[in-house]
Design a protein that fits this description.
The chain is an alpha/beta fold. It is about 50% helix and about 10% strand.
């Protein structure tokens, strides 16, 4: 398992970015679409104060003294602040290496008590796949976690695994990807399909995940792009709720055109 974990982390630290400027991030925007509303987020935006918690594993972090500021939770906060200039935005990251979905689900209550988030973005799946956790057990953990979040009146969003062609043949992700997709559809929870987004970036030449040259700058740019796309999904999903509240009469107050 340690070898696989090292390979996954290395995959985020390799290769030159081929045109990963602001526009390059949004090459994969067709994989990021708001299927379900985030009513608590919409209400928080209306109240001018949005609190977001990110619960994730090692792939939600970056190493080094500036790792926290460069990882996607911090980049999400920055992007949300640009999109929502009249709103006070706070994103808090809760990340632990080698935690399964079941272990994360048990810690969600503490996150809710500490942060009182309007939205919890739950990044999971990789560790379960690496450890060969029964997909049914994984799916049950997702359901349990959502029950905890919804009981506390917090919106939820899933984020699945990262893509790495270097570990594709080493880890069977399919069952876990489908379990997350099924639960998201069944429970009407937005899903940020990180796996598809990163695979598209690789295919389109935005990022070269095949390269073997280690560069922390590469991982930082990947995380920045993830933060930008994630912010778009949060705002667009909140906009669905705002539009529903307005009964389709006129445009909502939640901006959704900014590409930052």
């Amino acid at each position: 398992m340690r070898v696989l974990a090292a390979a996954l982390i290395a995959a985020m630290l390799v290769g030159p970015a081929l045109g990963a400027d602001e526009g390059g991030c949004f090459v994969a925007s067709s994989f990021v679409h708001a299927d379900f509303a985030l009513p608590q987020v919409a209400a928080a935006i209306g109240a001018k104060h949005l609190n977001v918690a990110v619960v994730g594993s090692a792939s939600s972090t970056l190493p080094g003294a500036e790792g926290a500021a460069k990882a996607y939770p911090a980049r999400l906060e920055e992007s949300l602040k640009r999109r929502l200039p009249a709103v006070t935005v706070k994103v808090t990251a809760h990340t632990r290496a080698r935690e399964t979905a079941a272990e994360m689900a048990k810690s969600l209550q503490q996150v809710l008590v500490e942060d009182k988030p309007d939205l919890v973005i739950w990044q999971t799946g990789t560790v379960d796949a690496m450890m060969g956790v029964d997909p049914d057990v994984f799916q049950a953990a997702l359901d349990e976690g959502l029950e905890t979040l919804h009981a506390a009146k917090s919106d939820a969003m899933f984020m699945n695994m990262q893509y790495s062609p270097r570990t594709d043949s080493m880890i069977a992700l399919g069952s876990y990807v489908e379990a997350m997709r099924f639960v998201a559809l069944q429970r009407e929870v937005p899903l940020f399909d990180r796996l598809a987004v990163m695979k598209n970036w690789n295919e389109m030449g935005v990022f070269d995940f095949y390269s073997t040259t280690k560069r922390i700058e590469f991982a930082e740019r990947v995380h920045d792009c993830i933060g930008r796309l994630l912010a778009r999904l949060v705002v667009d999903s909140a906009d669905l709720a705002a539009q529903a509240n307005n009964s389709g009469a006129g445009s909502s107050d939640v901006p959704n055109k900014d590409i930052h």
